[in-house]
Write a structure and sequence with these properties.
This protein is an alpha/beta fold and about 190 residues long. Helix content is about 40%, strand content about 20%. It has 5 helices and 6 strands. Helix 5 (about 165-175) links the parallel strand 5 (about 150-155) and strand 6 (about 180-185). It is globular. It starts with 18 loop residues before the first helix and ends in a 10-residue tail after the last strand.
Length: about 190
């Protein structure tokens, strides 16, 4: 809110101002542009691909004939759903890319109800972050143990739809365990609405 000390306010502005002054003033008071989602998506894709390149280079230095080993991971939407269709897609992608696919893991996307205010009856569903899911925990455990070079998933939403969570997972696997994430459906910015 802007406090005005004079009761007289001119809506026309000063006649002494030039158009350039007006434009500069408008730009100065404009809210900063929010982080553009397409730029963030590109950053996430580049980061993910960087760790895959590094894993490939490490493999080539050690033994060029060994295939990259990946684990399969799927997030199903209900307890009655099975990941069988995902497994078939992940297996086909792994074969096409020349990966050796190992164990398969999945979790059920169960919403956890949270409330906006303590004691409020109004809530919203928030999905469990990947590091709190048992199937994803096994993926990380095997990667940490050196049994796999990466993980293959259908799309980034199997890990997290939240950019910050997704980025944290990419960096954790890549920087800490020298592992990568392969997506069958790459990150892409949302279409026009």
């Amino acid at each position: 809110m802007i406090a005005v000390s004079s009761p007289r306010i001119s809506l026309m502005g000063s006649r002494d101002r030039t158009d350039a002054d007006t434009v500069r003033n408008q730009e100065r008071h404009r809210d900063p542009a929010p982080l553009e989602r397409p730029a963030r998506i590109g950053e996430l894709a580049r980061l993910r691909q960087q760790f895959r390149r590094e894993a490939t280079e490490r493999r080539d230095r050690r033994s060029g004939d060994r295939r990259l080993r990946v684990l399969a991971y799927s997030l199903v939407t209900s307890r009655s759903a099975t990941p069988d269709e995902d497994w078939n897609t992940l297996q086909a992608e792994a074969e096409q890319r020349g990966y050796a696919m190992g164990a398969r893991f999945h979790d059920v996307a169960v919403p956890v109800t949270t409330t906006y205010l303590p004691g409020s009856a109004v809530g919203r569903g928030v999905y469990t972050p990947p590091w709190k899911r048992p199937g994803w925990g096994e993926v990380e455990r095997l990667i940490r143990g050196g049994f796999a070079d990466g993980v293959i998933v259908l799309d980034r939403h199997n890990i997290s739809s939240n950019d910050d969570e997704y980025r944290a997972v990419i960096k954790e696997l890549g920087e800490r365990y020298q592992a990568f994430i392969h997506l069958v459906i790459p990150e892409k910015p949302p279409g026009p609405t």
